[in-house]
Amino acid sequence: MKNNSSLSHRKEEPENGTLYIVGTPIGNLNDISQRALNILKNVSLVICEDTRQTKKLMNKFSISNNLISFNKENSLNKISKLIEELKTGKSIALVSDAGMPGICDPGENLVSEVKSEGIGVICIPGACAAITALVSSGIPSSKFIFEGFLPKKNIDREKILFEISKSEKTTIIYESPHRLKKLLLDLLEFCEGEREIMVARELTKKFEEHIGDNINNAIMYFQDKEVKGEITLVIKGRKKEQQQELDKADLKRDLKELMKAGLSLSAASKYLAKKNGIKKSIIYNLN
Ligand code: SAM
Fold it and tell me: Burial letters for 35-47: b for 16+ Cβ neighbours within 10 Å, e otherwise?
């Protein structure tokens, strides 16, 4: 007889002593599943980034439950207490303000510690801006790199921009509206203007927009506008045939050799930057 145990659901939810990671909408409140609503209604407590935000969602579906704040500032102090609650048999739902908890939102540490205690963790999948943008971009979506928000510190940022410029895989980036223009200019510098891109604005909401089709055009589109709303970028990988002989490992090796021959880091970087037509700081940071 065919074993269907993996298809049907296990027990009635929520189960005692279980942490539920619940995906919530990224704009359109109708993007919530029946299963998520059932969990939010019936767990012992709901831990959320901002109780006011989660309350809006609960009110929309006429649900009420105990809401406890669990955000960037207070989450680390709360983990051991939550683990105790789970051990006493309580069920807990973790939500963020929008989308999947743990994706540039609190949750990662809690899940890792709860799992290390051997406590059950179940995800109720929901919307995620990265995946929503990716699959609607028309840009290859089977292999991709998710960078989240790029670092602000120049050294770290340039390293990642360099990696993106070299990557053959699609890259997804989150960005705030007031930093979008700077990011597009950085991408222009590292990836050049012809690189295919989609800037997804306000996904799932009334004024959803997909702006592209390449970096040059996205810059032109936004240049005289005040950027508003939530933004996710999808950047196509570099085409194989466009690959220059600019391998990071090769650059590192060349840098080492020049320094061995007596050049300072600065002089060697300057030389290689000129030779390869890229910024000196990129080579400098490879050391
Ligand atoms: N956990 C969320 C998820 O699963 O997508 C992401 C949280 S992160 C703090 C917020 C960022 O996600 C925003 O700054 C934006 O880059 C992206 N984002 C969230 N909602 C979006 C939307 N409706 N349209 C475009 N990007 C969105």
Answer: ebbebbbebbbbb
